[in-house]
User: Fold Metallo-beta-lactamase domain-containing protein from Gillisia limnaea.
Amino acid sequence: MKVTFLGTGTSQGVPIIGSTHPVCLSENPKDKRLRVSVLVEWNSHNILIDCGPDFRLQMLANKVSHIDAILYTHEHNDHTIGLDDIRPYFFRQGDIPIYAHKRVLDSLKKRFDYIFESENKYPGSPGVKVNEIQNETFKFKDFDIIPVNVMHNRLQVFGFRLKDFVYLTDVKTIEKEEVEKLRGVKVLVINALRREPHHSHFNLEEALEFIREVNPERAYLTHISHQLGFHEEVQAELPENVFLAYDNLKIEL
Ligand SMILES: [Zn+2]
Assistant:
């Protein structure tokens, strides 16, 4: 399994438009963060988690030739608004399978009504194959994908476990029985927004505490704001099995 971090930034991305914050002015490519998404390559199947506003650039940067599934964590704009740009994949492959909670599907149907149209659909608009998921293991091809329920303040969000890899984003709280699903995981990805507390995201301290609880072999931090600090400085103070993810980082497991 190969995982590519397509984007590791918070909702506005880093740099923020017009910002003169030192991290936004940094010339280190690791301080430039597109909106969060990962690509999981599993036995040559390409599984995308989330499809935000930077989707097109992310696909071009990583020369992604096909998409076999899109898993959605939740409906916030930074995780969903790239859906129209699946068109090149749709033209080559046909309807693209998407997997999401019913509430997220309803939100996508509102924003992208033309994609879900069944009659008089505009030729050229993309098509999707809808898969509604609940908090239960589901099959993709021969693989089991385990949703993990987390809370983004009061909004339910799905994380996903794919074998020994877990991707969780936009977490503020998580129930004990959901943490149980993470036992024995090798790689954990978890959000860490900044140092200061936030109403709907783990800060760095909360993320590190959660990593100690789950105890994976390695952990990667994502959904990062410019307020967290310079990549190199933050990385230097992390425990040895914890890494600050950065855009286009590829890992294997
Ligand atoms: Zn988000």
